[in-house]
Design goal:
Blueprint: E1 15-20, H1 27-35, E2 39-43, H2 51-63, E3 67-72, H3 77-85, E4 90-93, H4 99-109, H5 133-143, E5 145-150, H6 153-157, H7 159-163, E6 170-174, H8 175-181, H9 191-207, E7 210-214, H10 219-228, E8 230-237, H11 238-254
Parallel strand pairs: 1-2, 1-8, 2-3, 3-4, 4-5, 5-6, 6-7, 7-8
């Protein structure tokens, strides 16, 4: 059996993730890998991407050495099973407020005895290798990364209990939603927001879990939050990267001085 690429996140480095919400072709995960990202994340919460496209993008990402995630707006066990069966290695579920919700996400993502994901045969995650059901289940469980989004004040209050859920790997702070919930929308330097990140980092470290952060592009701020304990950063979407590059290129073209050419009428 061909060995599965092990996707367990570790706290000894910063894991860099590129989100995909606009592109629909296999080139995008390859570009992300070439750029030096560690993970890709197909966003099914804020886009019209289909499960079929998410599967294709995940398989390409895995082949390129990335950890392929898919983000869902809620815990939907049927959709989670379909995504994991068709090539996704990581599931991110948004708006998880307490440990009970987090435990239900783990149940949907992991095979028995660690969860209630329906059994399947060989699949893209184990490279369609052979083996007993027990071997396939253990291999896929080891390759699966389970993540939840911390996006409001209630979730921050419960972060220690959420981090303690067995089988959960990663807690990601959604900076935009969380700052709004705290009454300081987009004020990422506000003491209330900083305190929430610090509390989440402490809860994650005490349980040996990874803390992630999404929605902040200021590198100085990111460095400060990494110093606090963040080890996974959602660095932006393909849409943002395309817009920024297009605006920058167009601005440079507009700066070129065009001199009149003799003999040519304007």
């Amino acid at each position: 059996m061909m060995p599965v690429h092990q996707n367990r996140l570790t706290p000894d480095r910063l894991w860099k993730c590129m989100s995909i919400s606009l592109a629909r072709t296999a080139d995008t995960p390859l570009i992300a890998a070439a750029a030096g990202f560690d993970c890709s994340n197909v966003d099914l919460e804020h886009s019209a991407v289909s499960i079929e496209t998410a599967s294709m993008l995940s398989i390409v990402a895995s082949g390129a050495g990335l950890i392929p995630f898919v983000r869902l707006p809620r815990n939907d066990p049927e959709t989670i099973a379909r995504l994991l069966d068709s090539g996704t290695h990581g599931i991110i579920v948004s708006h998880v407020h307490d440990a009970k919700e987090a435990a239900r996400v783990v149940d949907a993502c992991r095979f028995a005895p660690w969860g209630q994901r329906p059994p399947i045969a060989s699949n893209p995650v184990n490279r369609y290798g052979t083996g007993t059901w027990e071997e396939i289940a253990a291999e896929c469980n080891a390759a699966t990364v389970v993540a939840v989004m911390i996006e409001n004040a209630e979730a921050v209050d419960n972060v220690g209990d959420i981090a303690a859920v067995p089988g959960l790997d990663l807690l990601i702070i959604g900076a935009w939603d969380l700052s709004a919930s705290l009454g300081v929308p987009m004020q990422f330097e506000n003491p209330a927001f900083r305190s929430a990140v610090t509390k989440a980092a402490s809860g994650c470290m005490s349980e040996g879990k990874i803390l992630g952060l999404a929605g902040i592009s200021d590198f100085r701020l990111l460095a400060e939050f990494v110093a606090i304990g963040v080890r996974f950063v959602s660095a932006g979407t393909d849409q943002i990267f395309l817009r920024e590059a297009a605006f920058a290129r167009a601005a440079k073209l507009r700066s070129i001085d065009v001199q009149p050419m003799g003999g040519l009428k304007p």
